[in-house]
Write a structure and sequence with these properties.
InterPro entries: Burnettramic_acid_biosynth. Keywords: Coiled coil. By secondary structure, this protein is mostly helical. It folds into two domains: about 200 residues, no CATH class; about 110 residues. About 50% of the residues lie in helices and about 10% in strands. The strands form three sheets. It has a three-stranded antiparallel β-sheet. Strands 1-4 form a two-stranded antiparallel ribbon. A hairpin with a 2-residue loop joins strand 2 and strand 3. Helix 3 packs parallel to helix 5 and helix 3 crosses helix 9. The N terminus is likely disordered.
Length: about 375
């Protein structure tokens, strides 16, 4: 390039160099702006900027955490039911794959099992210790609890130790935290509510507020299947019995609704889903009221027919008879309407009571929450 193609030189800040113990400044490099750069310079694409992994990878939003519910709502005196086994794909961007995450979930489920199961199977201090996985090895340390500890305290200590370990070694370094929280606290943090008592349906209702989950996960393998051996005679058995009784109860209710629909000649959709003796009693009253209303129409129809082409004296007799018959029917109809109102109030009162019981019941539901710190 020729000298006339350069503008006046622009000096860069001088550098200080040391030579033989003496400080000296020199400026051997000059940056010179070309006046007319070659056209080829405009045709060359600029190299892409370096990728910054902190800005390009997907991260958990503070307002959209990861949630995993218990598989059911446990009774007061029972061990906490196991948590749902699923994997949030967002954790892949934190280098936590499905196998590692499910190892943690299985470890928590083992920690929540009643201590009697550990004693029976002689695995109280082992937990996940034999699993060839650094996360599982760390999780196992959270399961060591002295024998003789109370059931509730034992489960609490095991769970706390495990959570402390996985948070310290796995989640905290990635800016995350795993917690086990009650349903009320979950709803408070999300700023929303869910209606269903079923944990899985409740999870679906919270869908817009939480990270996506994948339920297409591998079952516990031979090494982690200790969960099945520990809880088979307790949590799994009790849950199976609950599910069995629940199905029987639902089947009986459906059968009653079908019979009621046939008996009262009504579509089954119009029959209360929570069909019971109170609902049946109200339906019987409604059927009787309907018959009386039909009877009123019949009385008026017959009376009007008799009035055609009769003398005034006969008209008075017919109207007098009509008034008497209608009065008797109306009296009975008003009595039934009052009875119907009482039946409705009773059903409403029971529904409100059940709603309060459901609130107390769902308050026992526990969730795993993973959120940003």
């Amino acid at each position: 390039m020729y000298p006339y193609q350069f503008g006046p030189p622009q000096e860069l800040p001088a550098e200080t160099n040391y030579h033989n113990g003496l400080a000296q400044q020199d400026n051997p490099y000059m940056y010179q702006q070309p006046i007319n750069p070659p056209l080829a310079a405009f045709s060359q694409p600029l190299p892409p900027p370096p990728l910054d992994p902190t800005t390009t990878r997907a991260t958990i939003s503070p307002s959209c955490p990861i949630l995993l519910p218990s598989t059911s709502i446990g009774a007061t005196l029972e061990a906490t039911p196991p948590f749902t086994r699923a994997y949030p794909p967002i954790l892949g961007s934190y280098n936590i794959d499905a196998a590692a995450f499910l190892t943690i979930i299985d470890g928590l489920n083992i920690a929540l099992v009643e201590p009697a199961a550990f004693k029976t199977l002689e695995v109280a201090g082992e937990g996940l210790g034999f699993i060839p996985n650094e996360i599982a090895q760390g999780a196992a340390l959270g399961l060591e609890v002295a024998a003789g500890t109370g059931a509730a305290a034992c489960a609490y200590i095991r769970t706390k130790r495990l959570l402390d370990r996985v948070n310290h070694e796995i989640f905290a370094p990635k800016g995350l935290k795993m917690e086990i929280l009650k349903d009320e606290e979950i709803m408070k943090r999300l700023g929303t509510t869910a209606k269903s008592l079923d944990p899985q349906i409740r999870l679906q209702e919270l869908g817009p507020h939480i990270e996506v989950l994948s339920f297409d996960v591998a079952p516990p393998n031979k090494q982690t299947n200790v969960l099945d051996r520990i809880s088979a005679k307790q949590t799994a058995y009790k849950q199976a019995e609950k599910d069995k009784e629940k199905r029987k109860k639902m089947d009986r209710r459906v059968q009653k609704r079908e019979k009621a629909a046939e008996k009262y000649n009504r579509p089954i959709e119009s029959i209360d889903k929570h069909y019971n003796s109170d609902v049946e009693s109200r339906m019987e009253i409604e059927a009787k009221i309907a018959k009386l209303e039909t009877k009123i129409m019949d009385i008026n129809t017959k009376s009007n027919t008799k009035l055609e082409g009769v003398s005034n004296k006969k008209v008075e007799e017919i109207e007098k008879r009509r008034t008497k018959d209608l009065g008797e029917v109306e009296k009975e109809r008003l009595r039934l309407l009052e009875k119907h109102d009482k039946a409705t109030a009773k059903i409403q009162k029971k529904a409100e009571k059940k709603e309060e019981e459901d609130k107390k019941k769902v308050a026992k539901l526990e969730w795993i929450m993973i959120h940003t710190i």
